[in-house]
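Hi there,

I know you've been waiting on this one. I reran it after we fixed the sequence typo, so this is the corrected version. Both the input and the resulting structure follow.
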Amino acid sequence: MVSTPASAEQEAADRRFMAAAIRLAQKNSGRTSTNPSVGTLVVRDDGAGPVIVGSGVTAIGGRPHAETEALAEAGELARGATAYVTLEPCAHHGRTPPCANALVSAGIVRVVGAASDPDPRVSGRGYAILRAAGVEVVERVLADEAAERIAGYLVRSLQKRPEVTLKLAVSADGMIGRLGEGQVAITGAVARRQVRLMRAASDAILVGIGTALADDPELTVRLPGLEGRSPARIVLDREARLSPASKLATTARSVPVLAAVGLDADAARKSALEALGVKFLATETYEGRIALPELLEDLAALGMSSLMVEGGAETARNFLDEGLVDRIALFTGPGTVGAGGIVSPLDRNHIPDGFRLVREARFGDDALAEWTKAL
């Protein structure tokens, strides 16, 4: 079916319902394994205005897909309705039919899609199935907004590595801490809670061994009701220097800890950590440090789509220098660190080329700005 030009009223409704589907998709962000968290709304209008009769989000673990969930909720009300889907419906057969076919079988007459799927088994094919069945298809409604929300899946599909978010907390005088003093509070409690929410939506958090030794961080979510959403924790630890008494090592059985070590790492230290539940990633080294591109490929092979880099300065610079950062989340606090401070590798006046500002917010006295790089 060839789409006819939509009225301004229809276009406004499409954007409104797609925005709601994008918000819905965030419900299981970081919990859908190698699949993206997709949102679907089934909307029908029997003359009194459009009404949502079915909603679905990709289930925890990646199955069932959002379309299946929304169609099941809508039941017979799906016949003659419109489906709003944040990612092109899948077109490949597994043990269950493709979502594109499921939409056709349910009697959906119009599909509004947002982001395109780079998976060669899907790209363009889902929409082709729908059009061949006479379903009207409208593409790329709020496409950029939807793509930003599933950037981990898109980066992993296109570049064979996780999406990397560099999170930094920078003082008013451009510092991220003070030498020899461990953790220094740059931001307040409200901003720190926001960081934990960001962790909950990530597959893994990464720090360098310097940060692990100096700060002894736990790197978990620690928010009421979200304790089970803590992602895997990764330490760049070429020589296996992580202390068995550290918070990371002593909690490794409850929340996974992966130490990226070199071939020459001390066997006795590895054994002590392994006894506590720490797992190891055998890595290649380059110029005396862990080869980051190869490490990211290995993480993608483990099914990880999103990685949050939290420290420290050297690790952040290495990711930036390698061109491996896709998103920058910069928290700025009002206080100063002063003498002995560790200079941040960037601030909002020195953002690398190729990034665009996509979001700003305030959390108490602290500011957050986020930049993303085009895929």
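Quick highlight: The first strand starts at residue 39 and ends at 45.

Best,
R. S.
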